[in-house]
Specification:
Length: 61
Amino acid sequence: MLVTLLMYFILGIPLWRICQRTATSPAVLLLLLFPVVGFGLILAIIAFRQWPANPENGGLR
């Protein structure tokens, strides 16, 4: 239980920031409660989601 909470905080903060930048709901991070499967699903969601254009790069992705 303690290891799961520690991993949740270690992985949760960077993934929270990535979710904000990709316009993904941060509720996806609840999948981290299932350590191996949840992390894989979060990575798949982030990897295959269409990311919004970055206006700082002239709209390039």
